[in-house]
Amino acid sequence: MSTKKNILVVDDDIDFLDQIALTMKADGYNVTTAQGQEEAEDAMLTAIPDLAILDLMMENMDSGFVLCHHIKKIYPATPVIILTAVEAETGMDFKARCSEAASWVKADAMMHKPVLPEQLRSEVRRLLRA
Fold first, then answer.
1. Which residues are within 8 A (CB) of 100 and not within 5 positions of it... i.e. 6 or more apart?
2. What's the CA angle centered on 98, arms 92 and 102, to 5 degrees?
3. 48, 39 in Cβ contact below 8 A?
4. Which domain holds residue 57?
5. Residue 92 lies in a domain
6. 1, part of any domain
7. pLDDT tens per residue across all 130 residues of the chain
8. Is residue 59 part of a domain?
């Protein structure tokens, strides 16, 4: 990569946060990490993200959705991936069932935890090319 892209990774699980950060750094990206919504909102003002990877449930059950909304409001072109283990744990499905729901969520991709590093890498590459 000629110019390193900045990736914001946000998750309240420090082990998962470190795993994703190491994966992205190994691929040559600059990585900013945050352990929650508030910390991420501060971080994204100083290190403008080219892409964000967010956990869905952190301080609040909807922290990932709220943070995604904030990112898209400030940086509309920044792709956002939301990662969640909710479907596996509860059976709840977060796929948008109509265009109105899809427009509210604003995430460019939703992926289920546990996510394989190669799946995440592929999605990051796809979104950064767009």
1. none
2. 75
3. no
4. 6-129
5. yes
6. no
7. 448 999 999 999 999 999 999 999 999 999 999 999 999 999 999 999 999 999 998 888 888 889 999 999 999 999 999 998 865 455 555 554 545 554 556 789 999 888 999 999 999 999 999 5
8. yes
